[in-house]
């Protein structure tokens, strides 16, 4: 933390619906945001590319927290799934977030925090959501276990939102689910970044 009490927080996926709300909330609290996305922001990186993550954090240098709001999976039925679909889903949202932590660890401050993202499908499956359920459960398992092993009092948590109110194109795929607004998800990130919890799956549904 700087002498003026401002935290330097890296937001990955800053141009997405959730990422924009997280950036907005951090700015409202008066802290410094480093915006990262694949094609825009202060820095560019692809979470599926470990080398780009390593280069990203080497360029940014010292910081206090990482909040990730990115990660993609393929939505298909079990019988339609290909090896490539599965490899993409695991490589992007699961390994991408694991590598995000691994690449950032040498640069994050003592007592800093990581916030990753999973989703409601780890508990409530939908048709065609096998990969999402698998990957989300993997992310949550990683967070729960890594919390015991991270050095220097570094915390790690995972945000698990339901389908977003803003993502109207997905609503029919989530029958009976009550959508949540992006700003509410951002408040869960606020809890993870500025609170004291670690190893938690913070649900927003």
TrEMBL record:
Pfam family, one: adh_short_C2
Signal sequence region: none
InterPro entries: NAD(P)-bd_dom_sf, SDR_DHRS6-like, SDR_fam
Keywords, ordered alphabetically: Oxidoreductase
SUPFAM superfamilies per record: NAD(P)-binding Rossmann-fold domains (SSF51735)
Family: Belongs to the short-chain dehydrogenases/reductases (SDR) family.
Protein name in UniProt: Short chain dehydrogenase
């Amino acid at each position: 933390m700087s002498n003026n009490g401002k935290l330097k927080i890296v937001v990955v996926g800053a141009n997405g619906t959730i990422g924009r709300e997280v950036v907005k909330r951090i700015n409202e609290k008066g802290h410094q945001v480093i915006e990262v996305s694949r094609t825009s922001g202060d820095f560019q990186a692809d979470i599926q590319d470990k080398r780009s993550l390593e280069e990203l954090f080497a360029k940014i240098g010292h910081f206090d927290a990482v909040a990730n709001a990115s990660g993609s999976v393929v939505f298909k039925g079990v019988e339609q799934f290909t090896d490539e679909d599965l490899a993409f889903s695991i490589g992007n949202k699961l390994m991408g977030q694991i590598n995000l932590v691994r690449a950032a660890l040498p640069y994050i401050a003592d007592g800093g925090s990581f916030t990753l993202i999973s989703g409601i499908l780890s508990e409530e499956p939908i048709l065609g959501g096998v990969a999402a359920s698998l990957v989300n459960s993997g992310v949550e398992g990683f967070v729960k276990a890594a919390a015991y092993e991270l050095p220097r009092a570094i915390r790690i948590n995972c945000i698990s939102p339901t389908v977003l109110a803003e993502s109207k194109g997905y609503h029919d795929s989530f029958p009976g689910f009550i959508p949540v607004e992006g700003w509410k998800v951002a408040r869960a990130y606020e809890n993870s970044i500025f609170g004291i919890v670690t190893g938690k799956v913070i649900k927003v549904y």
